[in-house]
Amino acid sequence: SDICSLPFLAKICQEIKSAIEHSVPFKDVDSDKHSVFPTLRGYHWRGRDCNDSDDMVYPGRRPDNWDAHQDSNCNGIWGVDPKDGIPYEKKFCEGSQPRGIILLGDSAGAHFHFPPEWITASQMSLKSFFNLPTALTNELNWPQLSGATGFLNSTSGIKEKSIYLRLRKRNLCNHRDYQNISKNGASSQNLERFIESLSRNALLDQPAIVIYAMIGNDVCGRKTDPVPEMTTPEKFYSKVMETLEFLNSHLPDGSHVILYGLPNGTFLWDYLHDKYHPLGQLNKDVTYDQFYSFLSCLQVTPCHGWMSSNQTLRALTSERAKQLSDTLKKIATSKKFKNFNLFYVDFDFQEIVKEWQKRGRQPWELFEPVDGFHPNEVALLLLADVFWNKVQRQWPDVLGKENPFNPQIEQVFGDQGGH
Amino acid sequence: NSNDHICVGCVVVVSVIEQLAQVHNSTTQAAMETLCSYLPEKLFLKSACHLVVRIVGPDIIKLLSADMTADVVCHHLKFCEQVPGQPLCHLYPLPKEAWKLTLENARQIVKGSPTLKYSRMS
To answer: How many beta-carbon pairs below 8 A join chains A and B?
Structure first.
């Protein structure tokens, strides 16, 4: 039954298990935490390595000798301009203040997505499962399409782009400098188990924008009574401070950390409970209310507190979420760190609901249809857009300036080696 | 608890098989073969599907033919189990007769007929 017990598979199983447990790339020959392989925590999760046999070559590092001889930071800009002998990286990036985007998140940040076509018999065909191997080896997450670090074109067709793509558009020197350090089930309490997978050297690398977005698992329990296992504000405060101390010792000077609040998740039940689940659409026999009850009964629900018919429990969950958001606000306004500025941004789901309704669409279209819980790709991109505009308005330094050499970079280096 | 995730997985898969048969107006056996044919070879997905169908397919065919729900099928196959003292977890509306009687009927149905041989499986 356990295929990994077969001797010839034991080693590779061990390596895969370690990669998933520690959230580091499975295929990383030079162990610099950047990979040429897409899944198993590869370049779907963090900038693709452009030389996997040299651990001093990776996305996000300050250029080595202005990359006159090799592309040491994998942004596709290197070599010397024959006209004047100036290295291109020096000519196009010096002074433009390049920066990377790093997300510390949970399944929402990793963009957990179970395609509805996998369970919709009426639409099923040979094409339905083509992406199943990729999804399984990414733990059913799609970070390559996420709101923070997505680099692939959106499948939903809306115009909004990920935070990474907007940082890249603003300054092409930021090409490939993204890291999605997220995990299904992550919370303030277990982030310490995988935060070491964050790859940033305070001396060698560019500054980074780190988004701390533990948006649910601190209040989302599985048990019949989830309240006792909710994180208390005191515990939350303590763990967030530990994380900020870790970041202060790893981030280059000039970085920024943005604490992202928790949502008031009562909208979930309001928008979905009486809608049909994909399994119930053929025979009109399974609503999300039944689906939520089934998952809660088995204690495998992603969030009993908000996926419940119990209005009191939903309100209690939102109340604790607000307390934790207030804790983040308190930290952001009272704590100072040497290597980064600290900010707080509200998770304002209603703002994107209003924007979506303005487009004549329905709120329930903003959720993953199969799990009836996670924000879907559209929601994640709308949230990224709201986030970007808020940060741009309140703290313009965080996102950096437009690089006037973008056109020249594009002219000389095209797509800079892509992703 | 991974058993609980397996229970969810079983109910989802059996529901899909049941709905494939309904949508294509085919037998349950053909629906299972169709589902396996849709899966990629990578990660042994297609062969794992055929293996599972070979092992539990005959029971699924008999029970769905008797209009049992995916909940009943998965409890019968022991992918779902009611923990003593815990509520019975089900996705679909419960059958009219008592649950114990339903499971006993399921056992009788499976015990009776000979195990089917799948032609295209060979």
So the answer is: 71
Q: What is the tens place of the pLDDT at every residue in A354-406?
A: 999 999 999 999 999 999 999 999 999 999 999 999 999 999 999 999 999 99
Split at pLDDT 50, 70, 90, the class of B120 is very low
Pair of tokens at residue A324: 């934790």
Distance from C-alpha of A389 to C-alpha of A377, rounded to nearest angstrom: 18
Taking CA atoms, what residue in A is nearest to B70?
A279
Judged by CB atoms closer than 8 Å, whether chains meet at A294 and B8 is answered as yes
Task: Please compute, for residue A198, the number of CA atoms within 13 A of its CA located in the half-sphere on the CB side.
Answer: 31
Q: Is residue B49 less than 8 Å (CB to CB) from chain A? A: no
The predicted complex's ipTM stands at 0.91
Give the residues across from A345 on adjacent strands: A260
Q: How distant is the Cα of A408 from the closest Cα of chain B, in angstroms?
A: 43
Closest CA to A368 of A294, A288, A281: A288
